Amino acid sequence: MENDQYYMEKAIELAKKGIGKVNPNPMVGAVIVKHGVIIGEGYHEKYGCLHAERMALDKCNEDPKDSTLYVTLEPCCHFGKTPPCTDAIIKSKIKRVVIGIKDPNELVSGKGIEILKSHGIQVDTGVLGKECLELNKKFFHYILTKTPFVLMKYAMTVDGKIGTNTGNSKWITGEEARRHVHELRNELSGIMVGIKTVLTDDPLLTCRIPEGRNPIRIICDSHLRIPLYSKIVKTAKDIPTIVATISKDYDKRKILEGFNIKVLPVRESNGRIDLNDLLIQLGTMGIDSILLEGGATLNESALSSGIVNRLNVYIAPKIFGGTISPSPIEGTGISEIEEAYLLTRNKISVIGDDILLQYDVEVK
Ligand code: AOF
Ligand code: ZN
Question: How far does the centroid of ligand 2 lie from the alpha carbon of residue 47, in Å?
Answer without folding.
Answer: 12
